[in-house]
Amino acid sequence: MAISAGSRGRTHHRASRHTVVSLAVLAAILLVVPYFLPFWRFDLFAPQYPAGLSLVAGFSGIAGDVREVNILNRFIGMGDLTEAARLELALAPYGVLGAALAALAVVLLAPPRVAWLAVLVALALPIGFLLDLQYWLARFGRDLDPRAPFRVAPFTPPILGPGQVGQFRTLATPMVGFWVSLASAVLFGVTARLRHRGVRPRPPSRRRVLRPSHQPRRPTRRGGAEIGAVLLTAILGAAAPRAVAGGEPSAEPGGGARVVVRPGQDVAASLAGAPAGAEVVLAAGVHRGPLRVDRTVALRGEAGAVLRGAGRGTVLTVAAPGAVVRDLGVEGGGADPVAGDAGVRVEADGVVLEGLEIRDVFIGIEARRAEGTEIRGCTVRGRTGLPLGMRGDGIRLWEVKGARVEGNRLLGVRDVLVWFTTGSVLAGNEAVGSRYGVHLMYADGNRVEDNVFRDPVVGVFVMYSRDVTLRGNRVTGAAGPAGVGLGFKESDGIVATGNRVVACTTGIYLDGTPRKVGGSARFEGNLLAYDDVGARLHGQPAGAVFTRNSFHETGTPVVVDSAGEARGTVFVGNHWGDYAGFDLDGDGIGDVPYELRSTTGALRDRRPTLQFFTGTPAARLLDLLGAAFPMFGPRPVLKDERPLVGSPIPRAARAVERGEWGDDPRPRAPQVLRGPCGPRRDRPGRGAG
Predict the structure, then answer these.
(1) What are the phi and psi torsion angles at 653 (to 5°)?
(2) Which residues contact 597 (CB under 8 A, 6 or more apart)?
(3) Is residue 415 within 8 Å of 388, Cβ to Cβ?
(4) How far apart are CA 499 and CA 521, in angstroms?
(5) Which of 192, 422, 507, 547 maximizes the CB count within 10 A of its CB?
(6) Using CA atoms, how far apart are residues 605 and 51, in angstroms rounded to an integer?
(7) Which pTM was predicted?
(8) For residue 401, what is the DSSP state?
(9) 165-176 pLDDT, tens per residue?
(10) Alpha carbon distance 127, 135 (integer Å)
(11) Could you say which DSSP state residue 214 is in?
(12) Nearest to residue 75, comparing CAs of 430, 589, 601?
């Protein structure tokens, strides 16, 4: 049988068509792949961060040192990075898939003269990403909270290249996702060029070519379409969610199992099928709870992943030793105070909770009889529409040993309870608008360090506990009749050093502390500034020692209830803001003792109704007369034989005068304090920061 004279040329033409289809589908795949890759990186360098901080952004969210950067951002009034671009992140999967399909359709089906539009569609993703990123950077850098501790001029960080933001050097660079998307645009351009040169994805006619019977059959003209269908199926399989009962297993580079659970899939079934040590990833979207983790796995949420309860009971229960839960939103819990409905409940040892966003629950996080629990970088938001006493606790530790609660934010919750708990550390947390910042009861050997408590009723209260250390905490705005910065009731072995208690009704409250004969309670290096009462002693405590503290602009430095004297409490080497002595030898110690006498204080203790006149000119006149004629005034409340002429913590005192927290070099937000509080003068008050 004869062979058509044009068969060789047609074979070359058919191969070109296959090339066009293959290149187009490959370009579409490359346009989808960046959804799963990092797209942009932002590095910050400063002397206190020699290794730098890094943020990595992509179509699926932001990762890296997000918590540390958010802490720094609060200094200058910037918002939380995780609140940005929520709509864009929710629409990103559909936008990426739609752009890939649209570009593929244009380059293969449209006339050759408009096939170039596929390049514009492909470029719309990386360019649109950078433009949207530029918008959010400008919004965060220019929409600054005027109440922030540090005021800086509005700024917009550079989206590409080096820059400077305050003391930080920055470097913004595109990452692999950006370059892959550009490669996709280049391939679409090559495909459009081939189309423009006359190569079509389909032949102009269906004329058959006769071949000898012995010649192998060549691929048909449908071969290109079949290749395209296979590759397009790969795109849809990679990007589109699949509604199946369980998660999708995959292998991690390190060999551990990884199960991805899409919204609508059964999370419990995925957990049941996951081997011990696996990572179970909840994809962005809403997943139905309640959920119980009863095997040792790592449960992680992608950006935007939320586990939502049914409005009753506990949303997430972790009952497997060593399980890890991180980067997940939890909401929709019950409100039964008897059952103790919680957002997350820990019932096993060694559990780690990290980076959780918990809201619309009664108790945020509760750990019961769970040794070694770690709660890090979580945010708990209380139900602020309810009265304070009905909101539920932010974090509750009950009969826990060796817990670590670090770097958490508690907004509008009731209390942080540490009851019957030993050997635990609460450090670097921030609580705003709570009733008790931390309440310890029957809690021995615990440490509360470097926390910030703004506008609580009580900052920290320790009851019936031993060997408790409070170090470097900041309490401001504990106002009202019950306002107390640091309170202690019938406790022993207390050490309180380096704390800042500002603008509170009572700075330090002692009731029966130390509790036992021979017990101890030591207060050293604390700043008590702009409090109505610096220290209030109730029950004639014996054994407490105050040294190197600064009573800075307090209404009354020390009050002893029932018009008593501080006989059992030692005050030595403190700085008193109203000390009128002198230091002729220049050794920093007053040459005459400091004696505290308060005529109005004695009268108030005898007749509490006279509290109404605190701070009035009449009350000040009585105190002035009592100081001028000490023979007619009351007996001294206390005597400090070695008063300090200057503050032992001058940097902290000067910082408070400027409206800041103090000389803490760590990035733990200093606060701007405003408003009148107390009888001395206009001074910082509630609403700090």
Answers:
(1) -65, -45
(2) 626, 627, 630, 633, 634, 635, 636, 637
(3) no
(4) 15
(5) 507
(6) 57
(7) 0.60
(8) B
(9) 766 788 888 888
(10) 12
(11) T
(12) 430
